[in-house]
Design brief:
Diaminopimelate Epimerase, Chain A, domain 1, alpha/beta, inorganic pyrophosphatase (n-terminal core), 2 domains, globular
Length: 390
């Protein structure tokens, strides 16, 4: 029998039982391509489990506003969604550090589930079921999945254990795109997901992907086109009415609607590339060569771009890079770290100064009061100096 990620059986049983009883689902995903793909995979799994979810009782889908509310399960979202209680609340590609928010959702009458792949910080939230390859006691041999990769494995188990016929291709193409977009290691099971998923993409029947291929003049044999003409547009979407344009595109049935959205996303991806280049040049002008870390911020930078720019800066200068956008009271930080450094551990060392933090060792983020920015920098510098001297 195929080995399962810890928590898969329990989570799958909850979902299968709730589906059979026509219970309401809320699918709450991070607003990047990994979160969006995870939501779509689980939503289409629910539709295969129970036709009512497609025809009458469609799951409520929600993506948080990263720019204004931040990453993960936010107080704004809970306030908006509590009217749907009781329901099964599934957090996808987020939730593993939302301890207080999970408690609040339970008080509001939600049954909570977390499907995530980010680093576990000390303890787990008290959700009814959690699948995360990074959790303590995980015996599955491969742990470097994207959230969509985790969701794919869960959905595969749910459908097969309910004896349902299904084609994995449309799930694999999403899992592959998410794995590449989230820069997960292209090794182990990820290598197979990417290989099979890109083959599925070649023959996709998904209306949104067909439209994107058409409007971008996508070349099947160029791997660079996967990034530039599929992933980049899908990661350039805005949020409209609690959804994202990419979600609407990838779930579209109308060719006309899909073509219009695909055109707009491709235009936005080109404009975004120009803005990123401008921001990159701005950051580089500020860098002083003798610093232990690169630590820069600006009130005019966009939250959705600081991670991309931090990644480019980190790759070039081989230093821990922390970039942030701040408002009058708060700062949002994205960090990227060279091989051998752990950003989550660095933030954990300075957690008394932070409102929240989380992510992966090489790519993570946090929120903090603006007044703590200098103290946070000092704490990080001291931490990395100590690490260098060990």
């Amino acid at each position: 029998m195929e080995k399962l990620l810890k928590g898969t059986k329990k989570l799958s049983q909850i979902i299968s039982n709730a589906s059979q009883n026509d219970e309401r689902f809320i699918l709450y995903g991070d607003a990047d391509l990994d979160g969006i793909s995870s939501v779509i995979i689980l939503q289409e799994t629910l539709e295969l489990l129970n036709q009512n979810y497609k025809e009458k009782n469609k799951p409520i889908v929600y993506f948080p506003d990263r720019e204004n509310d931040g990453y993960g399960i936010t107080p704004t979202a809970i306030k908006k969604l509590k009217k749907y209680s009781p329901a099964v609340f599934v957090a996808l590609d987020c939730g593993i550090t939302n301890f207080e928010e999970i408690e609040e959702l339970k008080r509001e009458g939600f049954l909570t589930i977390i499907i995530d792949h980010h680093k576990v910080i000390g303890r787990l939230p008290k959700a009814e079921a959690i699948v995360n390859p990074k959790q303590k006691g995980e015996k599955y041999p491969f742990k470097k999945f994207s959230a969509a990769g985790v969701t794919y494995k869960i959905s595969k188990y749910i459908l097969e254990s309910n004896y349902l016929e299904w084609s994995p291709d449309s799930f694999l193409e999403l899992a592959a795109l998410a794995t590449l977009a989230d820069q997960m290691p292209q090794e182990g099971e990820n290598e197979e997901i990417i290989k099979q998923g890109l083959m599925a993409l070649k023959y996709t029947k998904r209306t949104g992907l067909l439209a994107l291929k058409e409007v971008t003049d996508y070349q099947e044999d160029l791997k660079s086109d996967v990034y530039q003409k599929i992933i980049s547009p899908l990661n350039s979407s805005d949020r409209i009415n609690d959804l994202t344009e990419s979600y609407v595109l990838l779930t579209a049935n109308s060719k006309r609607q899909a073509r219009a959205i695909a055109k707009e996303l491709y235009r936005k991806s080109i404009a975004k590339k120009e803005k990123i280049q401008k921001m990159l040049e701005e950051v580089e002008k500020r860098i002083r060569g003798n610093e232990v870390i690169i630590y820069e911020g600006d009130k005019n930078w966009l939250t959705v771009m600081i991670g991309i720019v931090a990644s480019k800066i980190c790759q070039k200068y081989k230093k821990p890079t922390f970039l942030f956008k701040y408002t009058e009271n708060e700062a949002v930080c994205s960090a990227r770290l060279p091989k051998g450094f752990d950003g989550v551990k660095a933030m954990q060392h300075c957690q008394d100064l932070l409102n929240s933090f989380g992510g992966h060792a090489p790519a993570c983020g946090c929120r903090l009061k603006k007044e703590n920015l200098e103290k946070f920098k000092d704490c990080l510098v001291n931490y990395f100096i100590e690490k260098q001297n060990e």
